[in-house]
């Protein structure tokens, strides 16, 4: 029985990854029993003893199960440092009509329009060779103003105030993006007039 995990397997890997590296199901069961790896979910494993950010671990599972998934709204705001709130669930957007998998994660799923889904979407590396989508700060602000009836104008205005104090803030670019989202543009213009 092979006693050493291949170095080529990352800290988080799937059954398919293991098979590609010559690891059998028998090896995986033995390593799990010995405490060398931990089974996170069906077909998803973690090397024990690896220091991994818990949120990135959760995002790794999300990225493997739903590659199109994009961290959005309050979770993305917290990631960008535009909010002190720590959401109890991970806000994740998928294109409207996309099926969402059953995961053992605290996720709040959101369906966003397909034609604007990619606007402001970046890739966030959560493990070697594994990324998940993350909306940039401007898209987060636009979404907050667009959905202010759900999250409140105070949260949107506070996030906007914080963003404006950063060196990378470009109000003109923010308004250009907001034009793609008619429900956000007018409220965002009013708030920018007050804050600038």
Provide a descriptive summary of the structure in words.
The chain has nine helices and eight strands. It has a five-stranded mixed β-sheet with strand order 6-5-4-8-7. The longest helix is centred in the C-terminal third of the chain and has 14 residues, at 182-195. It is elongated and about 65 Å long. It is an alpha/beta fold and 196 residues long. 31% of the residues are buried. The model has no long low-confidence stretch (mean pLDDT 87). The chain has helices at 15-20, 25-34, 54-65, 73-79, 137-146, 148-151, 153-164, 171-178, 182-195, and strands spanning 12-14, 37-41, 44-47, 70-71, 90-95, 107-112, 121-127, 130-135.
Output the helix-strand order. Answer: EHHEEHEHEEEEHHHHH
Q: In what order do the strands lie side by side in the largest sheet? A: 6-5-4-8-7
Number of helices: 9
**Percentage of residues in strands:** 15-25%
Q: How many beta-strand runs?
A: 8
Poorly predicted regions are none
* Average predicted local confidence, pLDDT: 87
Output the radius of gyration: 20 Å
Percentage of residues in helical conformation: 40-55%
End-to-end distance, in Å?
67 Å
Shape: elongated
- Largest sheet report: 5 strands, mixed
How would you classify the helix and strand content by structural class? alpha/beta
């Amino acid at each position: 029985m092979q006693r050493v995990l291949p170095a080529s397997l990352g800290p988080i890997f799937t059954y398919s990854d293991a098979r590609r590296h010559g690891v059998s199901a028998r090896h995986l069961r033995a390593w799990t029993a010995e405490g060398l790896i931990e089974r996170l979910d069906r077909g998803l494993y973690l090397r024990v003893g690896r220091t991994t950010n818990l949120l990135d671990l959760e995002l790794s599972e999300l990225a493997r199960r739903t590659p199109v998934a994009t961290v959005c709204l309050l979770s993305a705001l917290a990631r960008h440092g535009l909010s002190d709130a720590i959401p109890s669930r991970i806000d994740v957007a998928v294109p409207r009509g996309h099926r969402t998998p059953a995961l053992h994660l605290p996720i709040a799923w959101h369906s966003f329009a397909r034609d604007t889904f990619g606007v402001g979407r970046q890739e966030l590396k959560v493990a070697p060779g594994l990324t998940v989508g993350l909306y940039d700060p401007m898209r987060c602000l636009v979404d907050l103003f667009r959905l202010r009836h759900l999250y409140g104008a105070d949260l949107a205005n506070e996030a906007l105030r914080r963003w404006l104090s950063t060196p990378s803030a470009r109000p003109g670019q923010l308004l250009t993006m907001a034009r793609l989202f008619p429900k956000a543009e007018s409220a965002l213009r009013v708030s920018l007039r007050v804050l600038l």
